[in-house]
Amino acid sequence: INLLLSGGARRVRFQAHLNLAQAQKLGEESVALERRKFGPGHADTQASIYTLATVYLSAGKAEESRKLFEEVRAIRRQQPDSDEANNLYLLNNLAIAEEALGAPDLA
Q1: Which of 13, 25, 38, 97 has the fewest CB atoms in 10 Å of its CB?
Q2: How much is the pLDDT for 86?
């Protein structure tokens, strides 16, 4: 895993030696802290939610992953200046989660 979690202005990179359980725990903590500190619409919070969704997907937790990708998607729809390339990655990962759930036609 090459996990990127944001924390305000600083970024912390976790390399492949970090296992999925640790990544999930740290990601959940990061999301909770950033939701309280910045709110859901903040760029750092969105980045952490997105990262946690990718960790869930890697861990085989497609339903949890899908919910978080959908949350980020809903937030970004309200922000007309959101980055198009990042939105494409989001939609791609959402489609992967949907496919893992057996519903590729929903993505």
Answers
A1: 13
A2: 67
